Amino acid sequence: MFGSYLHSGSPVQQANNRQGEAVQVAALEREALQAGARGDAQRANRLWQSILAQAPDHPRALRSLSHAAFQAGDRAQARILLERLVAVDGRDVQQWLNLAVVCLAMGDDTGEEAAIRGALTVDAYDLVALLMRSRLYIRQGKRQAAAAACAAVAAVAPPLQSLAPDLQPAVREALAWHEAYSREFGSYLDDFLAPHLKALDGENLGRFRDSLDVMVGRKRRYDSQPAMFHYQGLAPVSFFERADFPWLDAFEAATGAIRDEFLAVMGSSEGFSPYINYGDDQPLAQWAELNRSPSWNAFRLIDNGEPVAGNAGRCPRTMAVLGGAPQPDQPGRTPSAMFSVLKPRTKIPPHTGVSNVRLVTHLPLIVPADCGFRVGNDTRLWEEGKAWVFDDTIEHEAWNNSEQMRVVLIFDIWHPGLSQAERAMVTAMSAGINAFTQTAGGFQL
């Protein structure tokens, strides 16, 4: 009665047969790998063929034999094996890429595109697959598709120097193609829009022009990136319209008197300190060269919300004019005001400020040639007695390439986009932070 359970067709016997076949296939696979490691390709291929005879969907056998067929010039057989491989497995990007390469060698654009799509379905960020797609579309003359594909390469690719040397030329080619396409696109839109802009002559279309330049790659998009506190809903504006700050008239009118006070304190050299002053235990990042350096000095009039004893009293005219500015009220933090002195041949590296609840004002006092200032995409030259207001939470930098010092009165003001109620809440929040940390300035805003 027990004999029926040992029949070759019984479930037990079938399981035993499958287990035996698996053991045999595993042994053959070990032999094939060892033969390949010895460089005995012929024996390795025979063993892989034996494996396929017993296990037709064996992934490693299919991959190895497809490679051997491609190396031997039998592209058709390589494709058959790879198509079977992606059908039974398809979880490895390289399987699809190998199929795409075979299709490319066979001149089958449709098959190549389908294989690349399969690779990107497995990993939408695979750089090699993205490069192959960009090259396919460029070769086919599909300009719009190629532009999108090259843009994807640009978005995914790390810096060229960090790439493997064999990938660098392809990435460089995709980036160069996309740059050329963007230039052509931008020139076309310039010509197309010229009559529309002419018809609207006199209108303020600066924001539209900037947006167009960002879209076609002529400019970068810069957003507010405060180091500490970001107030939601305030649009990132690099330089604000001068007309929005009529109280600056008093500052510009007093430029001569303010400069005279600076020159008086400059003569004694007392009260100046490095603008950057980090401790030895703090990360310096881009400030290593300027930390504790007299190359960028400051004569602080108001610091952390309070007049600086010994300094403010020496500049009564400047302090009086500062009293007419809408200075932010953040106990222990703001307002702030100082004479900023940039020595010859000194560059302030790109950086961002701490909070967009306040803006920064410059009143240039001494400006030699070859000095400049950039906020986001906008670069300007200081003019003595001409003030401007900017958002320092947008990346900005400054330079003095001359042989003379550059001097600017710098002070902060409330962001005009904040209502009186919002300003009151920011002031209260600052006081709350002080109470929690039991210190003023423990959390910079």
Describe what you observe in this structure.
One of its GO terms (cellular component) is membrane. The protein contains 14 helices and 11 strands. Helices cover 47% and strands 13% of the residues. It is elongated, with a radius of gyration of 34 Å. It has 2 domains: 3-176, Serine Threonine Protein Phosphatase 5, Tetratricopeptide repeat; 242-437, Sandwich (Jelly Rolls). By secondary structure, it is of the alpha+beta class. The chain has helices spanning 11-38, 41-54, 59-71, 75-88, 93-105, 109-122, 127-140, 143-156, 168-199, 206-215, 248-253, 255-268, 316-322, 420-437, and strands spanning 272-274, 296-303, 306-307, 337-342, 346-351, 358-366, 371-375, 378-380, 388-390, 396-400, 406-414. Residues 1-8 have low confidence and may be disordered. Strands 1, 2, 3, 4, 6, 9 and 11 form a 7-stranded antiparallel beta sheet that branches. Strands 5-10-7-8 form a 4-stranded antiparallel beta sheet, with no helix packed on it.
In terms of topology, how is this protein built?
Blueprint: H1 11-38, H2 41-54, H3 59-71, H4 75-88, H5 93-105, H6 109-122, H7 127-140, H8 143-156, H9 168-199, H10 206-215, H11 248-253, H12 255-268, E1 272-274, E2 296-303, E3 306-307, H13 316-322, E4 337-342, E5 346-351, E6 358-366, E7 371-375, E8 378-380, E9 388-390, E10 396-400, E11 406-414, H14 420-437
Antiparallel strand pairs: 1-2, 2-3, 2-4, 4-11, 5-10, 6-9, 6-11, 7-8, 7-10
Helix pairs in contact: 1-2, 2-3, 3-4, 4-5, 5-6, 6-7, 7-8, 8-9
Number of helices: 14
Structural class of the secondary elements?
alpha+beta
Shape, per Cα inertia axes: elongated
The SSE order reads HHHHHHHHHHHHEEEHEEEEEEEEH
The quaternary organization reads as single chain
